[in-house]
Amino acid sequence: MEVIQLINKAINAALLAGIKIRNVYSFSDFQVQVKDDQTPVTLADHAAHDEILKALENSQLPVLSEEGVHLCYSERKNWDLFWMVDPLDGTKEFIKRNDEFTVNIALIQNCQPIAGVIYAPVTGELYVGIPGAGAFKLFNPTEDCTFQTMQLSGIKLPEKSKSEEFIVAVSRSHMNQETNVYIENLRKKHESLRIVNKGSSLKMCMVAEGTASIYPKLGTTMEWDTAAGHAILKASGLIFFQPNLKTELTYNKENLQNPHFIAL
Prior knowledge:
33% of the residues lie in helices and 25% in strands. By secondary structure, it is α+β, with helices and mostly antiparallel strands.
């Protein structure tokens, strides 16, 4: 099955998961629980996970999802092609009801993302990228949206050229001292620097579309947090490297935690 056919399945899966998430978002009780890693999970995370698994089932590819069973490395190390999924990225933002959360689905081949989908269920923003074929953004897609629809009706990324103002996208809920020091060093190089706080993978989308100059992450993330955004950034002609700006992130490692990274 070709990459475009597969990413069409991921687009459909993300949109269906978005419906489940919006349904739970209307509830007064999200049934918030705390996982072993001390991160929150809600009814929406589980509902979106189940919907994505069902939608991707006929691709016959393995799925590595934040909310699924994490097989040991010996069982997944030989996966040549698989899905990397975060059913609800930005659960803290979901709980705060600030709309800054996404569905992230990436197609991984040989430890690299070759296609990615990010969907913001409340704002209706859909981002899709295939390195070599381009990255696109579309507002309020219809249920039958495909990559071809994105190419015909979407906005090609990057949408905006970098402005004179240097805009740094940072986490709304996960800032730390190391990131603050990094930003202060950036201030020495850029007279006009502005910080924008944003939740979930939308920070990577901001860089991809040109509304942010850089997104430095000098803290903990997992592979499912970044894989889809990584693909979209590459498809936009941008980079997503470790802080040395030479080493690209890889996926399906034995330890699924990412190193620090810079998107620009």
